[in-house]
Amino acid sequence: MSNFIxxxxxxxxxxxxxPTKKVSNEDIEFLKEAVRLSASxxxxxxxxxxxxxxxxxxxxxxxxxWGQTQIVDASHLLVFANITNFGETQIDAHINNIAVTRxxxxxALKGYGDFMKSKITSLSEDNRNVWTSKxxxxxxxxxxNAAAELGIDVTPMEGFEPExxxxxxxxxxxxxxxxxxxxxxxxxxxDDTQNYAKVxxxxxxxxxxx
Length: 210
Fold this sequence. Notes:
By secondary structure, the protein is of the alpha+beta class. It has one domain: NADH Oxidase (3-Layer(aba) Sandwich). It has nine helices and four strands, in the order H-H-E-H-H-E-H-H-H-E-H-E-H. Strands 1-2-4-3 form a four-stranded antiparallel beta sheet, sandwiched between helices. Helix 2 crosses helix 7 and helix 5 packs antiparallel against helix 6. It starts with a helix and ends with a helix. It comes from Flavobacterium buctense. This is NAD(P)H-dependent oxidoreductase. Keywords: Flavoprotein, FMN, NADP, Oxidoreductase. Belongs to the nitroreductase family.
């Protein structure tokens, strides 16, 4: 039987990480693959995931992440960044990837590519940026669930200043915008939050049957 529900009950947004415990390279590769396999609209994956390993950079990011200690204490720091002004260039690259992966001529995929372009490029740049930023949340959910399966803690964060993250990490020049942060590691024994009962709405409150 699946341990999914058990794992979901076990995980929580860790408030204090044990800085002496590091996630193994093998487990990091597993988590990367879980993120890589995440669902996204049209399979386009309109984002990048940045692993911030440099401790000096992490120290610079902490003040613009509300001073949260997870930024520097967790084993790994990930920044999910949506691709800004997503358009024809990225769609063409995706079509080429499909052709290569599935052994198809690109001409056979022209109709699909044109369909995506008609739906995406017709949006304003602001709306396209909102759309690509939403895709990062899907990837984050895969990370949360995969990490819980390994007994690894993840804290998803929206409490940071995206513009400052973009500046410190040089994301704007790369056509990227920080949308989400996730810290990965192992909960500290002193983090009392791990002992709190999980609070969620009841089925009756949450679900509507029509």
